[in-house]
Amino acid sequence: MALSQAARKVLLTGTVSDSHTWNLVFLELLLTEQGYAVDNLGPCVPVELLVRRCRAYAPDLVVVSSVNGHGYADGLAAVTGLRAEPDLADVPVVIGGNLGLDGRDDAHRRARLRAAGYQAVFDDGDLLAFERYLTALTGQPRTPVGRPA
Amino acid sequence: MSTGQVSFGRFVADAAAAGRLVVQPRMGFSDLRRMRAGLERTRFAAATTVGTVTIDSYTRVGAYAAARRALAEGTPLNGYPIVAYPQETTRALFDGVRDDTFPVQVRHGSSRPESIIRALTAAGLDATEGGPVSYCLPYGRTPLRESVRHWARGCELLAERAPGTAHVESFGGCLLGQLCPPGLLVAISLLEVLFFARHGIGSVSLSYAQQTNPDQDAEAVRALRRLAGEFLPAHVDRHVVLYTYMGVFPTTVGGARRLLEASARLAVRAGAQRLIVKTSAEAHRIPTVEENVRALETAAATAGTTDTGGPEVPDTGVYAEARALVEAVLDLHAEPGRALHAAFRRGLLDVPYCLHPDNAGQSRSWIDDAGWLRWSAVGGMPIRAAAPGDRPAMTSTRLLAALHTVARRYDH
Question: Whole-model pTM?
Answer without folding.
Answer: 0.91
